[in-house]
Amino acid sequence: MLRFWLTLAAAVIAAGILSAAEVQVQTKPSATPSKPATSPKPAASPAAKPSASPSGSPVSAQLPEYRPALLGLGPNSVINRMDTAKLISDGQKDGSLYFRCAVGKAGEIMDTWTYHQSPDSTLLERELVRCLDQTAFVPAVYNHEPVYAFFFGAVIFKIVDGKPRLRIFANQEESELKKESDFVGPQPFIGRGSKFEGLHYPGDNVTTSLSGTVELAMHVDATGKLLELRVVSEYPPLVGFRRAAAEDLRVATFIPAFRDGKPVECNVTLPIYYEPVEEDQ
After folding, report:
1. What pLDDT does residue 279 have?
2. Whether 215 contacts 209, CB under 8 Å
3. What would the mean pLDDT of 174-203 be, rounded to a whole number?
4. Which residues contact 35 (CB under 8 A, 6 or more apart)?
5. Pairwise CA distance, residues 58 & 202, whole Å
6. What are the residues facing 136 on neighbouring strands?
7. Can you give the pLDDT at residue 21?
């Protein structure tokens, strides 16, 4: 089956949504819930006010104008599902990685990609993917409507005084990660108001099974409009990934970045990762 979404596609939101979640000093393995994960109940943005359609009726059950896809809280959230005690007992040392999720309109995870792993982070990667497969996010909202969006995150795992410290962030900016900022990076979405259609592997140029990464420098305003896009790097070079990334993202509208719970203009450098298309055997 074609890898779904290759061709299709923190800020704090009041009352319990995190841009950077944390687990610290977990002494017992996390219990895995027996019931399927459900989407956390979304909270209204602190700055959001009830909106009305031209007829005067409420718009989409009072959803805010913008809301990024976000990690949730509670026993079914990724941060609470990850078994940090077992990671230590299995031998995981300090490690980190980036990941990208395709998040559906109900917060369901459509697919996950991991990349930029630090050395010896295999156990951390495996545990993250396991938990993402069993959870849901708070869905993204644009113009008061749920939309399909790409969530770009980073996971940092450290052992401090023999105890696990796990952090999951909703951005991949090195400077923001170092400061552990309350920052959610901009998220391209599929839906009304955006011409983004997902990431398209450059199969017309790449004849072998290669994975590729392109770093894009982007300037996105506080409404999600892309003002500038520039290719910073491409690996491997000269096989089509540079062109594919520029074409995929130049038509995108974004859920704007959020800082301290409010949409903000930002400059970010985002790694865009491409994997070969997989077909049914």
Report:
1. 56
2. no
3. 94
4. none
5. 43
6. 108
7. 55
Spell out the alpha helix ranges (H) of the chain. Answer: 78-81, 84-90, 122-132, 174-179, 241-250
Whole-number pLDDT of residue 134: 86
User: What's the rounded Cα separation, in Å, for the pair 229 and 212?
Assistant: 18
CA distance linking residue 145 with residue 141, whole number of Å: 5
Residues whose CB falls within 8 Å of the CB of residue 100, separated by 6 or more in sequence, listed in order: 112, 113, 115, 150, 151, 152, 153, 273
Q: What is the pTM of this model?
A: 0.78
Distance CA 238, CA 241 (A): 8
Distance CA 262, CA 139 (A): 17
Partnered with residue 58 across adjacent β-strands are: 52
pLDDT of 217 over the 50 cut: yes
pLDDT digits (tens, 9 = 90+) for 240-274: 999 999 999 999 999 999 999 999 999 999 999 99
pLDDT tens-digit map of 139-187: 999 999 999 999 999 999 999 999 999 999 999 999 999 999 999 999 9
Distance, in Å, from the CA atom of 213 to the CA atom of 209, rounded to the nearest integer, reads 14
Contact 157, 165 (CB under 8 A): yes
Rounded distance, CA 125 to CA 117, Å? 8
The residue extents of the domains of the chain are 20-30+63-274
DSSP readout, 170-209? S---HHHHHHT-SEE--EEEEBTTB--------TTT--S-
> In the prediction, which pLDDT does 51 show?
37
Name 100's bridge partners.
Answer: 113, 152
Q: Give the alpha-carbon dihedral of 9, 11, 13, 14, to 10 degrees.
A: 170
In the chain, the amino acid numbered 128 is L
